[in-house]
Structure to design on (864 residues):
């Protein structure tokens, strides 16, 4: 058992939150990272109310890859601590009327997380246990395997409904994950799928009775690679995903701040404003 | 209701046929264009006996895109006025022993129609109500959604059987529409599919009892985009179809008259001659 | 009937083994090539114990393409003379502690065979009648159509389990043959499939009761092209497979000896050594 795994979970979290503190303005860890006796990590998003991916959470996800690689981890399962939401996707507050410098940093961290998934030394999987729209589903697609729990929630990539045009590399990742034609229908019409439809359409690879079983199935997937040399796995994965990966690299090489420019368009800001106002009205209705 | 929709259907047709007259040698409109109360247009091909796509019909389809875009149309459904044929595809008379100048114009109009579908501001769909071989199926693939009526007819891309090698961009569009592997089998062997097999193989997205229901289902598809900003839809579509679209653009940039050169090859002209003779014999047999 | 088909099968084999002798150090033909009355050839791999693809066998496969093209052959079915093995794939003895000059020649012949399948003048199919791992399945994918007999064996691409990273062009061929996403899972995890699962996942196109029926089904596939001009078929095939084909061409243009360099890496040689030792132990266990 490696040194890393011998350190108690509490101590490791303190260690991680120490790491985080240096790169984040948040003093609280926004995720929990624990490694089981077989060397498989579970990264649990815990940023209530809806695990929105803000700058700090993205930084902590990115840091987790480095920490786990340093410990020669066997694989990583991503899940959520919340009962009904995996994640609401990118934090809309980062996108609407933003500080441009922070927005650039936000996007560079998002792309950094994407590159770490694409080039991970160890296999990754996602245990979906609640709503998974937009950027949250992009995060799930970045991992190699997806298992969803059953439940009354939806999964999909609904950027167009928010007035956002998905990045080409995300579209290529959808075309890789689903059937190319079905990806077109889903991406243009912002279709959200029930867990069973998500399985049928290829958005997820398996379905489980609950979150615990979803995590277990993800671990079973990771164990498939026990007898396969690590670098053989990661180089082969990188090659099978060469189209979305090279599209992302080209996108960043052309102009690393493209997404900032795209989000700052008046049309997109207006759409986001309408969406935020709609969300606020819903909240007010709930509280009265 | 927009001004365009208030103009009576007859007047609009006169207007369109007026437009057509200036770009076409035909004094008759070869298609009918009507817009319903919800702003969805139905473009009905009406060039008996088999709706062959000749230069003038392609020009009128192209013009329809401009007219509908100018009227802020919500979407367009393509169908046929004929009871048993959607379209026989490209008019073989344009290809066999042609006037080279007209053949170049023919191809530039065909590619122009393709580009307009790829970059359309509004969603497009095709209601297939009869035979749909070769170029007719290419036209159907260019629209975003395909519904076929049930019936005793076939759908597919049978260019190789006519001695014609499909353009690379059309092959990429098939690989996008169907499963890549199944597209290979269908394209090389010129397989034609019954409506139910076409559904199973992904050549069409839905099946309807008759033409009216097929049109209605196409309209239902178009209404999915009611709450999605138009430019978000069209940019996302353009991105999901970037491979066939960029292949077409590159093809045209290399040599806009490639198709003319390809069709003028002796082998192809010979194949077309054999095919036309076969068709003429069938006609003679029918009339005796 | 062509002259070629009139020559008795025995004479033709002598002729072929004569051709082989000039390009091969083996005095025995490692395959059997016979052409039926309809002009369809059956190429039977016969290099016991497991039809490993060594330099000489690859040279003979390559030569067969030239011989059959010269005879205006209608198509070619590849199968195996062995009862339980189609082929074990690339001969591991060519890869482990090799003579570098011979290894370069081995790879150039392997790539040459691949290019001949991609650009074949006639349709090709594979009748799988036993185990088909790694390079053997690559060979099967190179042909246009695959029928497997039923049986207690497996089919798939398990290079990563041997510590080998598949070439990008082979991964692109898998992504073309199977669903892109399923190809990723199969390639990274070195999944081997039963005949019925191989059918379900698209690794093969049809399943037969036995080898004879598998060959017959391959011939039926080839007959689909009886009325399609040969060059139309082969140019269309080349276009539908443009991604793996262009990837291979680019790979060879960059550095024709890339595979030699990859195989000579210490990690890969170590993995191969472990694998060979494991195989030798199994043999010793069987003989004691």
């Amino acid at each position: 058992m490696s040194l890393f795994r011998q350190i108690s979970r509490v101590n490791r979290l303190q260690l991680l939150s120490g790491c985080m503190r240096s790169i984040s303005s948040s003093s609280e860890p926004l995720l929990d990272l624990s490694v089981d006796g077989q060397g498989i990590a579970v990264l649990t998003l815990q940023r209530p109310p809806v695990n929105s991916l803000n700058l700090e959470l993205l930084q902590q996800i990115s840091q987790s890859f480095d920490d786990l690689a340093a410990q020669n981890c066997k694989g990583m399962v991503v899940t959520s601590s919340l009962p009904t939401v995996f994640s609401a996707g990118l934090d809309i507050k980062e996108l609407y009327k933003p500080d441009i410098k922070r927005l650039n940093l936000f996007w560079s961290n998002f792309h950094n997380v994407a590159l770490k998934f694409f080039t991970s030394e160890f296999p990754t999987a996602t245990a979906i246990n609640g709503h998974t729209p937009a950027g949250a589903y992009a995060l799930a697609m970045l991992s190699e395997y997806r298992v969803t729990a059953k439940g009354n929630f939806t999964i999909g990539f609904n950027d167009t409904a928010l007035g956002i045009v998905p990045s080409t590399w995300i579209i290529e990742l959808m075309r890789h994950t689903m059937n190319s034609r079905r990806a077109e229908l889903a991406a243009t019409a912002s279709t959200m799928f029930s867990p069973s439809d998500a399985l049928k359409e290829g958005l997820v690879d398996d379905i489980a009775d609950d979150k615990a079983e979803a995590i277990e199935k993800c671990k079973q997937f990771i164990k498939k690679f026990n007898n396969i040399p690590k670098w053989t796995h990661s180089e082969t994965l990188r090659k099978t995903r060469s189209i979305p990966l090279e599209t992302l690299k080209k996108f960043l090489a052309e102009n690393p701040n493209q997404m900032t420019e795209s989000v700052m368009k008046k049309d997109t800001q207006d759409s986001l404003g309408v969406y935020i106002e709609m969300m606020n009205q819903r909240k007010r209705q709930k509280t009265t």
Q: What stands out?
A: Residues 59 and 257 of chain C are 18 Å apart (CA to CA).
